[in-house]
Amino acid sequence: MNVKKELIEAGKYLKANQLAWGTSGNISAKSDEDHMLITASGTYMADLKEDDFVTCEIETGKYEGTRKASKETPMHTGIYRMRKDVKAVLHSSPFYTTLFACSNEKIHSELFVETMYYLENIAYVDYFHPGTQELGDAVTEQATKANIIILKNHGVVVYDDSMSEAIMRLETLEMACRMILKAKESGVKLNHIPEHVVTSFLEDSRYKPRKKLG
């Protein structure tokens, strides 16, 4: 699929499934080994057009054209520089995930099949103002430790080796956060899968091959 078309479809999907809202968030995908396409500043995720993307050099962060690249470009370029396997990066503020980002509640992965796989590693960074180099540097520093980085009091950034896997990772995270919160609200005690069972599940590829970081 054409990279721009893939990004347009991703934006529509994120909005339709309450994984993004308004002009909040930004998404990117590699166009080749040295460049990425990222949403331009101020774009609406649900209504992306062909000219809503900016080509950006991964190594330097320099971009082409008259449109201004998203202010969160330093996060995206940092991830691509540290993780050569990554092909797509999504930054958004879904309701339940952001609620957890604004609290000290723990996000558990040992709940069901998809959480065991997609939420195996979650990293955290402290609050830095959006679009700052400090935020970009903090995300870059954590990029090799997880495929999900919670931005405290801000939102989340997820990334993977394909757009579909990045979306699935984000969707699983939001689902888990919602489940954990609803369980607390209703007094339901969630049963966690034992650690040795989780390890067996991941190492024996009982869902799909375990993804390596890096």
From TrEMBL:
Give one Pfam hit by family name: Aldolase_II
Q: InterPro entries from the xrefs?
A: Aldolase_class_II_sugar_metab, Aldolase_II/adducin_N, Aldolase_II/adducin_N_sf
Q: Which keywords belong to this entry?
A: Lyase, Metal-binding
Q: Using the record's annotation, list all stretches that form the Class II aldolase/adducin N-terminal domain.
A: 5-181
Q: Which SUPFAM superfamilies match?
A: AraD/HMP-PK domain-like
Judging by the UniProt lineage, the source's domain of life is Bacteria
What protein am I looking at? Answer: Class II aldolase/adducin family protein
Q: Which organism is it from?
A: Metabacillus endolithicus
List the taxonomic lineage: Bacteria, Bacillati, Bacillota, Bacilli, Bacillales
